[in-house]
Amino acid sequence: MKKIAVILSGCGVFDGSEIHEATLSLYAIAKEGASYEVFAPDRKQHHVINHITGKEMNETRNVLVESARIARGKITDLKRFDPDDFDGLLLPGGFGAAKNLSSWAFDGPGASVLPEVENAIKGMVAQKKPVGALCIAPVILAKLFGQVTLTIGDDPNTAKAVESLGATHVRTTHGEVAVDKVLKTVTTPCYMLNATIDQIAEGAENVVRKMLELMD
Amino acid sequence: MKKIAVILSGCGVFDGSEIHEATLSLYAIAKEGASYEVFAPDRKQHHVINHITGKEMNETRNVLVESARIARGKITDLKRFDPDDFDGLLLPGGFGAAKNLSSWAFDGPGASVLPEVENAIKGMVAQKKPVGALCIAPVILAKLFGQVTLTIGDDPNTAKAVESLGATHVRTTHGEVAVDKVLKTVTTPCYMLNATIDQIAEGAENVVRKMLELMD
Fold first, then answer.
1. B23 and A24: CB-CB below 8 Å?
2. ipTM for the whole complex
3. Residue at B171 is within a domain
């Protein structure tokens, strides 16, 4: 049975992992006959957002602890991730990918990426194992590799920003994936488009299927 | 297009809505061609649980605000729910149903149910509109109606507790539903069993399908 590691970045679209993308990624993995294990960085969230008002709350939360809500408690500090143990790696989206895993939301192409995120992704790519990324998470691939073919949907500003790093942006719509055959990365826009939840399921499933193909 | 209201109880299995059940319920509704609107009570959570350690955290969170994470911000105070506006009502599980929507986790058959939860469910039943409940949420139906046919899976203690209220418990396994044809309630065990995420999707889908049938 193929085993896919999933990196979460909190619990909620505006300050962590987008919950539908995360859940439907886990579902897609199980549905396609693979198994998953969930990881997240053991670090303070950049901030906490009230998801009704969009305003910052005067609280601090931990990315690993909040991600555990999506993982039902079964989660491991990303620092302990070993690429030898997995056949693939998947990053759902949500602002957490751009606020907690990297600083893209604030610094754009000048963003930094958490070292444990960089190590996990580069470790898989070095072993020629596929890495999937949904929604805004593909910007991390652009930041780490420069030359990579990816999609973040159809937003011209984000497309321009990843291209400034050397990436080739493929304009896509719901459920479509962009594959980089050299790096074995698979990306899809999800909620970077104005999507419905069944379109998110389709995108996650297409990414997981393509990742499994690339493992053969 | 049929419209189903979904009542959430927070965000995370141990102190709120079970995230997979909630997300896969929304997905099932969309997949079956219906639409959804999300509600939650505007009240303080009973407590906040660290989902890694299982221990209580020294924090307070609001059920409506945390549920908004699953609803991507589009959520309404349950007090504003009007049964005239919907064709069906669905309650995903998680301890939130037994800690925030009712006090079942602490008081068992002697539990109280939030008035806005009671009003929403009884309002739908009075209009002969179907009500679905996943996981532990069916205990609320037992508490409100006494005589109701339902399932919470195969846990003998919970089965005995709902039967003490007059309910008829149907022992079920993954994905199976119990239907009360008089009240038009539809229940399935989900994570009351030791389930995988694809079994949760199956349970949610079967409940939604049966609810749609009961609307005809």
1. yes
2. 0.98
3. no
